[in-house]
Structures are given as structure tokens and as C-alpha cells.
Write a structure and sequence with these properties.
The complex is a heterodimer of chains A (625) and B (209). Chain A contains 20 helices and 2 strands. The N terminus of chain A is likely disordered. Chain A is globular and about 70 Å long. Chain A folds into 2 domains: 494 residues, Up-down Bundle (Cytochrome C Oxidase, Chain A), CATH 1.20.210.10; 65 residues, no CATH class. Chain B has a single domain, classed as Four Helix Bundle (Hemerythrin (Met), subunit A). Helices cover 74% and strands 0% of the residues of chain B. Chain B is built from 6 helices and no strands. In chain B, helix 1 packs parallel to helix 6 and helix 4 packs antiparallel against helix 5. Classes of the chains: A mainly alpha (625), B mainly alpha (209). Chains A and B meet through helix 6, helix 7, helix 8 and helix 19 of A and helix 1 and helix 5 of B.
């Protein structure tokens, strides 16, 4: 069977094959990082095109129709194909190590989740080359999207459906991993905050994605198979889509922000060199945010006409979320208070996140007041608000996480100097772009408009906003340069590169051995590694003798299952045009998927064992990748 | 390989589906999956209730015109019984009696196929007698989507159980395939529970409402 030596020394083709078939959470994390990063760049280019178009009044840089496609794809790409997979990258890279596990509960399904996401995202973006992208906004309200010509919305529906399955599987996988795979002594109340937020976000995924699945199915049936869910002439109701979209969509923003909170909750104690203030209240606040996140979806629909009672209930529930979020903000501040602070790049991002995110939170509470929301609705005020929470919260967390966890994922350290330049450009650009948009919105500029007229007092604000966007783009380019330079130089930094790592992921050799832990560690409290350090040790206390380790086999099946759905989606889409090949393609694609599932079911896959002797040989070399 | 170890009824563990870590993970993961499925069906029920009897004109049949309780009662009995027989199968699985488990699974599959045949007849009947189709009205779309999703789950469940029965026919039970049988039966129970709600919300409430 496979041995440790076999995993070393591969050619290029061998490496590609390794990544196509891998079930190792650390490699899947890298796949998520690359694919999510790629889509982040595409979404960023779309954002730049929006800001160029809106830089001056009466601009015709892009046509009105193309503008609709760009804003739709910018939102959809950034939420589904950039933010979520990038967070999944960190969840995969860090969470199993933080709880002292050798892998996730379902390595095969982990790979399947990635490939479904990847093919879904690819399908969605192919719309640019195959007759036009979706153009009904990222919310794709039925009354707009059913009237949209061409196949743009079909790409949206099918692409999100495929990638949504992948996300759902990822969520179940993380839940089971955290419940069943914790190392001895790792009780729930000793779990690092990033693990906790992954746990709650996964639970939200489990219950929030099925409504989206149903909504997308109904949209697919309406557009491609002649049903009438949203068609008023057939007795349908267009508001049903809005409800399903937001029953999914509102928990979705917590699915994104909670892991971001988790990343910052790891960074603050590390660089303040103090334990996280109010750990148990942080856990409580995380769970409470997750719970309340399901109670508030209709605040996106205040102007739909639900009536004053429904609006009042959802307004109050929405305001209530500010309480646990406030608990978190104060805990972070008190973690820094009196600490021995190091201003590394991750810490700078973390500290700048607090005021940025609070600003987004404050405008959020403003919108929660339903009467006021009638004024803000569909204006640039809304655009400013959600970019403050998403960029000021999630994107700052992703950049901070990249710097913080880069040594864990790649064994190298991103340049601190370039990181600070990126931060300065990105942070300045972010506030320059979006702060002014609050006022544009209050002055009456509606969101999603293609252009605006001169002489209405909107010129200066829009120009400033576009200049800010250029700053952010420059920051991202320098970040990419930093990544390339770091990997070219390839200076390995070894174990615990920040010197003050507190949790289990910093206690293992670098690069991380593919089996993670030779012996499962004994966890003796919160910040397990820090406890050992306080006693002058550099290693965790093992909880078991060295023994054989069971490992899963690589598999190409996840790729094939996902590819089948990708093929089938083309068939489903083009049968609308009465193309003769469409139905056969649909059947072939589904056949490939179900055939691969059948193959997986029939063929036994017991994995293999790494033998004790090999592990002992390996000990001196510090592990292999 | 520990998972392929041969057992006797005496050495067979009490909960073979959770005797290995893989089994434990599958058990818990599948319950979570069923939680997600519950939300999926809840969404479909909500849609159905919102669009029930919502038709473009009075010439279209409504719920009270369509449904015939004797057929639906037969279907309910078939599916409820099949849930019971799958419990018997799992009882024999836990007692390491492979042959009896296969027999009861076979009966479960037969009952499931009977249910499916009734459902196909029902749909064809609605189409010919009432021109009640997926594309005739929002009510039709919601009805066929809810009941059809359930029917699709029945087909998938049958395919799953049959695959397991054929694949393992010659090698009997071990700790590798015991969780698989257990999860398939759990899935079958879930399908049954959903049908109980369909019977109540769609058919019974359709007759009186």
C-alpha cells in the first residue's frame, strides 16, 4: 500500500492528478483558496467596471444591459464564489488541526463539496461567453428574472444549484467533524473560537441552503419546464421567491461573518498575548447570532407590503442581533486592553476591523427601523451598509487570515512590509469608496442605476468613490505580488512562526505531516498549546502511544460526480430552445453522476494504514507534505 | 482489515452501525442530512399551502375535485407497512441474521414498488381525467413538485436498498456494510414520515378545505 515515500517527488502531471483526486483537508483548503481567489479577482474586475462606469455622469463605458449583467455577476460571484470558498479554505486548513483531528469526518465528501462548488462557479461564469450573463441582480427577484431573455438567469439558477449542493455537504461534514473527531480533552468549552464559529456557521448552512435549493428548483421549473410558481397569470405568486431567497439569504450573511469573527478572535489573543476576554460569552453570542439570524429575513422585504405587524416584529428581531454582536465587539476590545501588543499585519487588520464593522452595524440598526427603511430602501445607503459589513468584516478577515495562516498552509511567511502597504491602500480605498455612498444614498441616488445626470450633486461623491476603488485594486495587486514573491523565495519558517501561537494548529511540525498528528494530543484546557508553553514545553502531551494510522484513499469519483451535473446543466438549459441534442445531454450528464455514485457505493474503499515503523522513521524528518 | 472481520451472533456488537468511527460519523452525518431534508420538504409544503387551489380559471380542477381517498389510503398503508418491515430488517441486522434481514428488505422493496405504482397511476389519472398537469396552473406545479419530490425520494431509496442487497448478497454482514444498511433504513423511515404529512396536509386537508 501507499507509504510516506510515495507521497514525495512527483512531476507536474503527478501533482495535478494528486490535487484532482485528493481527499486531504489541507490540500482541499489550497484548492478552495486558489479557486476562491480566482473568482475574487473576477468579482473585483467587475467591481472596477462598475466604478469606472459611475465615475462621471452620463458615462457610456458599458451599455445599460451590460451594466445589469456586471452588477449581478459582481454580487453573485463575490458572495457565492469568493467569500464562501475562501472561508471554506480556512475552515478546511485550520479547523481539523485546531480540534486535534487527523482529517475531517468525511474526506471523500469534502472533495465532492469542493468540486461541486468549482463546477457550479465555472458554469455560472461561462455565461459571459455563451450569450450573456444573468442580469436580474444577485437576488434575482422572480418578477424580473422570469422576464429576462436569453439564458443568463438559467446559468444563475443551475450554477448556484450545483455549487449549493457542495456547500451543504461541506456544512454537514464540518458539523460531524467537530462533534465526533475532537482530540481527548477537547471539550466544547475548550474549542478555539474559530472552531466554534465554523460549527455555528455549518449549522446555519444546513438549515439555510435547502430553502435556496427549493427556490432555485422552482425558478428552474418556471423558466425551463413550464411551471407557474411565480407566474401570476397561472395563479402563482412572485413573493414566494423573495421569501425563500431571504430565508436563505439572511442566514447566509451570518454564515459569512461568523467565521470572519472567528478568525479575528484567534488573531486578537495571539498578538495581544492575552487569552480571549469573555470566552464563554463569545461562544454564547456566536450561538445567539446564529439563532436570531433565522428570525429576521423579512427585514429585506419591509417595502413589499407585509403590513405593519409583520414589519414591527421583524424590525425588533433585527435590532436584537445588535446585542450579541455588541458583546463580541466589547470582548475584542477588552482582549486588547492591557495586552502586550504586536502590530503584525494580521493584528493591524483585526484592529481596523472593529471601527469599520461597527459603522456597518450602526447603519444596519438604522435600516432595521422599518419606517426609516422606506427611505433607505434600494438607495446607495444600502449599498454602503452591506459593503461596510462585508468588506469591513469579511474581506478584512480574509486578508488577515491569509497573512495569519499562510505559514500553516504553505510553510512560508508573507512579507510584513508589503502586507502593510496592502493594508494602507486597501483600508484607505475601502473607506474612500463606501463612506461617501451613505450620503449619495441619502441624497436620493438609487442602487443598480446604470448612470446618473449631471447637476444633481452626485458627481463629486461618485468620483471620490471610484478613486477609492482604484486604491483597493492597487492593494489587491500588491497582495498578489506579495504572494508570488513569497512562494518564489520559498523561505520555510518552521513550526509556530508567530512565536505566540496558542492553539493546537501551531503545535505541529511545519510543513504539516499529511496525517496531521503522529499521536493525538491531550488537551488540558482552553488555548491548549499555550498551557504547555507556560510549563516550558514545546510539544503537546500525547494522549496515546505511537500506533498505526488509518488514512482514506484518494479518489477521482468526486470530480466525475460533479462533472456529470455540469454536463447535465447544459442539457437542462438548452432543451428550452428545442435543440435536438439537449435532452440526450441532460440524460448523459445525470447518468454520469448517478453512475459515479453507484460505483462509489459498490466498490469498497477501506483506506490504508500508515504503519507504526514508518511513523517512527519519519519522526526525525519533521514530516512530509 | 477490522471492518471485514468475520463475526458470529455472539461477537456481533450491540449497535453495529456505530461500532466503528466511520459508522459513528455516518450515523450523525446522516441525521444532519435528514435535518436539511426536513427543511427542504418544509419549504415545499409552505409553497403548496400558499398555492393550493390557485388556478387561472374556474375550469381547472381543484384539490377537492381531484383526490380520491381509497387510493390514497391504500398508498398510505403500503408505505407505512414498508416502514415496519424495514424495522424488522434492522432487528435481524442487529442480531446478525443476514438472511432474514435480506428477506425483510425484499418485502420492504416490494411494498415500496407497490406504492410507486399507485402514485404513477394516480398522476396519469389526474392527467387524463382532469387535465391537471405540472404546467396547467400554479396549483398543479406546487402539487406535482411536493408529491413528486417525495416520489423521487422513494425511487432513490428503492435503488439504494436494492443496490445494497445485491452488492452484499454473497458476503453477509460486517462492520463496513452494517452502517450502510442502517442508513438506508433510516432514509426509508424519513420518506415514510414525509408521506404522513403529505397524506394529512395535501389529501385530508384537500378533501375538507
Amino acid at each position: 500500500m501507499s507509504t510516506i515515500a510515495q507521497t514525495q517527488k512527483r512531476g507536474f502531471a503527478g501533482t495535478v492528478w494528486e490535487y484532482l483526486t485528493t481527499v486531504d483537508h489541507k490540500k482541499i483548503a489550497i484548492l478552495y483558496l486558489i479557486a476562491g481567489g480566482f473568482f475574487f479577482l473576477i468579482g473585483g474586475i467587475e467591481a472596477m467596471m462598475i466604478r469606472i462606469q459611475l465615475a462621471v455622469p452620463n458615462n457610456d463605458f458599458v451599455s445599460a444591459g451590460l451594466f445589469n449583467e456586471i452588477i449581478t455577476m459582481h454580487g453573485t460571484t463575490m458572495i457565492f464564489l469568493a467569500a464562501m470558498p475562501l472561508l471554506f479554505a480556512f475552515m478546511n486548513a485550520v479547523m481539523p488541526l485546531q480540534i486535534g483531528a487527523r482529517d475531517v469526518a468525511f474526506p471523500f465528501i469534502n472533495a465532492l463539496g469542493f468540486w461541486l462548488f468549482f463546477f457550479g462557479g465555472l458554469f455560472l461564469n461561462l455565461s459571459w461567453f455563451l450569450g450573456g450573463a444573468p442580469d436580474a441582480g444577485w437576488t434575482s427577484y422572480a418578477s424580473l428574472s422570469l422576464a429576462s431573455e436569453g439564458h443568463g438567469i438559467d446559468f444563475y439558477v443551475l450554477g448556484l444549484q450545483i455549487s449549493g449542493f457542495g456547500t451543504l455537504m461541506g456544512g454537514i461534514n464540518f458539523l460531524v467533524t467537530i462533534i465526533n473527531m475532537r482530540a481527548p480533552g477537547m471539550t466544547y468549552m475548550r474549542m478555539p473560537l474559530f472552531t466554534w464559529t465554523t460549527f455555528v456557521a455549518s449549522a446555519l448552512i444546513l438549515f439555510a441552503f435547502p430553502p435556496l435549493t427549493v427556490g432555485l428548483f422552482m425558478m428552474m421549473f418556471d423558466r425551463m419546464f413550464g411551471s407557474g410558481f411565480f407566474d401570476v397569470a397561472m395563479g402563482g405568486n412572485t413573493i414566494i421567491w423573495e421569501h425563500f431567497f431571504w430565508i436563505f439569504g439572511h442566514p447566509e450573511v451570518y454564515i459569512l461573518i461568523l467565521p470572519a469573527f472567528g478568525i479575528f478572535s484567534e488573531i486578537f489573543p495571539t498578538f495581544a498575548r492575552k487569552r480571549l476576554f469573555g470566552y464563554s460569552s463569545m461562544v454564547f453570542a456566536t450561538v445567539l447570532i446564529g439563532f436570531l439570524g433565522f428570525m429576521v429575513w423579512a427585514h429585506h422585504m419591509f417595502t413589499t407590503g407585509m403590513g405593519p405587524i409583520a414589519n414591527a416584529i421583524f424590525a425588533v428581531a433585527t435590532m436584537a442581533i445588535a446585542v450579541p454582536t455588541g458583546i463580541k465587539i466589547f470582548n475584542w476590545i477588552l482582549t486588547i486592553w492591557g495586552g502586550s501588543i504586536q502590530f503584525t499585519v494580521p493584528m493591524i487588520y483585526a484592529i481596523s476591523f472593529i471601527p469599520s464593522f461597527v459603522m456597518g452595524g450602526v447603519t444596519g440598526v438604522m435600516q432595521a427601523a422599518a419606517p426609516a427603511d422606506y427611505q433607505f430602501h434600494d438607495s446607495y445607503f444600502i449599498v454602503a451598509h452591506f459593503h461596510y459589513v462585508i468588506v469591513g468584516g469579511i474581506v478584512l478577515a480574509l486578508l488577515a487570515g491569509c497573512h495569519f495562516y499562510w505559514p500553516l498552509m504553505f510553510g512560508t511567511m508573507l512579507s510584513e512590509k508589503l502586507g502593510k502597504v496592502t493594508f494602507a491602500l486597501f483600508f484607505t480605498g475601502f473607506h474612500l469608496t463606501f463612506f461617501i455612498q451613505h450620503f449619495l444614498g441619502l441624497m436620493g441616488m438609487p442602487r443598480r442605476v446604470w448612470t446618473f445626470l449631471p447637476g444633481q450633486g452626485l458627481e463629486t461623491g461618485n468620483l471620490i468613490s471610484s478613486i477609492g476603488a482604484a486604491f483597493m485594486a492597487a492593494g489587491v495587486i500588491i497582495f498578489l505580488f506579495n504572494v508570488v514573491m513569497t512562494q518564489v523565495k520559498n523561505v520555510q519558517v518552521g513550526k509556530d512562526p508567530w512565536k505566540d501561537g496558542r492553539t493546537l494548529e501551531w503545535a505541529i511540525p511545519s510543513p504539516t505531516p499529511f496525517y496531521n498528528f503522529k499521536q493525538l494530543p491531550l488537551v488540558r484546557g482552553l488555548d491548549a498549546y499555550w498551557i504547555e508553553k507556560l510549563e516550558g514545553k514545546t510539544e503537546m502531551t500525547p494522549a496515546e502511544p505511537v500506533g498505526d494510522i488509518h488514512m482514506p484513499n484518494n479518489s477521482f469519483v468526486p470530480f466525475v460526480i460533479s462533472l456529470g451535473l455540469f454536463i447535465a446543466a447544459f442539457g437542462a438549459m438548452y432543451q428550452v430552445d428545442d435543440k435536438a441534442w439537449a435532452i440526450p445531454v441532460l440524460i448523459i450528464g445525470m447518468g454520469v453522476t448517478f453512475g459515479a455514485m453507484l460505483f462509489r457505493s459498490i466498490k469498497d474503499d477501506h483506506g490504508y494504514h500508515i504503519h507504526k515503523e514508518d511513523l517512527l522513521d519519519d519522526a526525525d524528518k519533521g514530516g512530509t507534505r | 482489515m477490522a471492518a471485514e472481520e468475520k463475526f458470529t451472533p455472539q461477537t456481533w456488537p450491540a449497535s453495529p452501525e456505530q461500532a466503528t468511527l466511520e459508522g459513528k460519523n455516518k450515523f450523525l452525518g446522516f441525521w444532519f442530512f435528514l435535518g436539511g431534508e426536513t427543511v427542504l420538504f418544509a419549504s415545499l409544503f409552505a409553497t403548496y399551502l400558499a398555492l393550493k387551489d390557485s388556478v387561472p380559471s374556474d375550469s381547472h380542477a381543484k384539490a377537492a375535485d381531484l383526490f380520491e381517498l381509497p387510493l390514497v389510503f391504500l398508498m398510505t398503508m403500503l408505505l407505512l407497512t414498508s416502514s415496519l418491515t424495514s424495522v424488522f430488517a434492522m432487528y435481524h441486522m442487529k442480531n446478525y441474521n443476514f438472511k432474514k434481514m435480506q428477506q425483510w428488505l425484499f418485502i420492504t422493496v416490494a411494498l415500496g414498488l407497490g406504492f410507486l405504482a399507485c402514485e404513477i397511476y394516480e398522476f396519469i389519472h389526474y392527467y387524463h381525467a382532469y387535465e391537471h398537469t405540472f404546467t396547467s396552473s400554479a396549483f398543479g406545479s406546487a402539487f406535482y413538485t411536493l408529491v413528486g419530490f417525495h416520489g423521487g425520494h422513494v425511487i432513490f431509496g428503492l435503488g439504494w436498498i436494492i443496490t445494497l442487497m445485491i452488492r452484499n448478497a454473497k458476503r453477509g454482514l460486517n462492520l463496513y456494510n452494517a452502517p450502510k444498511f442502517y442508513l438506508a433504513s433510516l432514509y426509508w423511515h424519513f420518506i415514510d414520515v414525509v408521506w404522513v404529512f403529505i397524506f394529512t396536509v395535501v389529501y385530508l386537508m384537500g378533501m375538507v378545505g
